[in-house]
Amino acid sequence: MHPPSGINRRRFFMNSALVGAALAAAPLALHAAGSNTATRKIKVGVIGCGSVARMYLPHLSACPFVEIVSTCDIIPERAQRAADQLSIAHAYPHIDEMLAGEPFELLVNLTDMQEHERLNRQALEAGKHVFSEKPLANSLAAGQELLALALRENLRLWGAPTVVQSPQFAFMAQTLAAGKLGAISAAHGIYGHLGPNWAEFFYTEGGGSLPDLGVYNLTYLTGLLGPARAVTAMTSIITQQRAIHGKGEIEVTAEDNAMVLVDHGNGILSHVQCGFNYFTPHEHDHTHQDHHTIDIIGTGGQMLLAGYDWAPHGVDLATSASPRLERHADDTKGYAWECGASLAAECLATGKEPLFTPEHALHVVEIMQAARQSQAEGKRVDITSTFKWPVMEG
Ligand SMILES: NC(=O)c1ccc[n+]([C@@H]2O[C@H](COP(=O)([O-])OP(=O)(O)OC[C@H]3O[C@@H](n4cnc5c(N)ncnc54)[C@H](O)[C@@H]3O)[C@@H](O)[C@H]2O)c1
């Protein structure tokens, strides 16, 4: 969840709309410039027409590989409004009607975090490819079942976040692969704000700051440093009651404050902290965030990511050969955090693979599950899953 709570949400969406408009003119990352034959459009159905859909729908509608044929929301007026805004012919109030209605190939699931697993399964069982907002499922075991189902049915399943697609991730991965930081020892990631105020699900079981916020740093750092071998964590609840728009005060039952230590093997340790109780300068407007949110240190250098990993601005690098911090990879064009569903459609249409994989998404689901177990049982928890790493070839 990216927009801030309170009055600044409006400003966030104004900024978001500008970013979306700029992106509509930008080429998609998987698509080689100048080679657009765009012969095949994937028919897409979008379920969940709330906050994040306002970012996905414009990106999808600007994608040359996409035809959005339907929207769906259990609050039917949201599905209808989204359909009206983009001249989408069909709007449904329930997934059963959506699956039985206008045919489509790719379901884009933008519903509450706790609903993803059930709806993703239902769509796969109905023969649809799926791109889902995070998390793909509520547990590693359930997610692995979904992936096995997809493989059996010759379907594709993908999940957000897509942070490994950014040019800044590519620069950092290449710098590490070239050994410029020497022997890597430690890394840190931080992401937080004051929490959303428009939906209860962020604060109840299956929600929390880990699957909403920590998921980004965990994906980024495992993408750079390799799969986790073990996790130790502490979590807590800072704000016991929250005011949610249209609901009044609700009890917070999911963690809203988390500290996760990850062992990546070969002695490399990282630390991710996230929470819904973090004051942020500029009220979380990502266009003004230039502070470092990811920090990687080795025996021969330090590398820091400026801006959020989902909205990076550049990479600052100092090495023993060049010890003053210098800015690199400061081109912010060509990547948007809401690109995942468009890239999934492009992959289905052209066969070009994105860098984000369901195995990586499920690995991060396991880390978050292990973090909760570590807090509950007061112990270090081994991680069993893995994913293809390095993320980038060569
Ligand atoms: N809001 C953001 O900026 C943002 C950013 C990145 C990721 N996300 C992720 O996107 C997802 C949605 O977040 P949001 O902020 O848009 O929430 P939201 O509450 O604004 O929107 C969710 C929508 O899904 C609908 N919905 C819920 N269950 C449904 C079901 N069974 N069938 C059909 N519709 C259903 C709700 O009615 C609602 O309109 C979450 O996983 C969140 O973590 C949000």
Topology:
Layout: H1 8-24, E1 42-47, H2 53-61, E2 66-72, H3 76-85, E3 90-92, H4 95-100, E4 106-109, H5 116-125, E5 129-132, H6 140-152, E6 157-159, H7 167-177, E7 184-192, H8 209-225, E8 230-236, E9 241-244, E10 248-251, E11 257-263, E12 269-275, E13 292-298, E14 301-308, E15 311-319, E16 326-328, H9 340-350, H10 358-377, E17 381-382
Parallel strand pairs: 1-2, 1-4, 2-3, 4-5, 5-6, 7-12
Antiparallel strand pairs: 7-13, 8-11, 8-17, 9-10, 11-12, 13-14, 14-15, 15-16
The structure holds nicotinamide-adenine-dinucleotide.
Nicotinamide-adenine-dinucleotide (NAD) binds next to loops.
Task: Record keyword descriptors for this entry.
394 residues; alpha/beta; Rossmann fold; Dihydrodipicolinate Reductase, domain 2; 2 domains; nine-stranded mixed beta sheet; 10 helices; globular; disordered N terminus; binds nicotinamide-adenine-dinucleotide
User: C-alpha Rg, in Å?
Assistant: 20 Å
Pairing-aware structural class of the strands and helices?
A: alpha/beta
Number of strand segments: 17
Shape: globular
Which percent range describes the beta-strand content?
15-25%
CATH topology name of the largest domain: Dihydrodipicolinate Reductase, domain 2
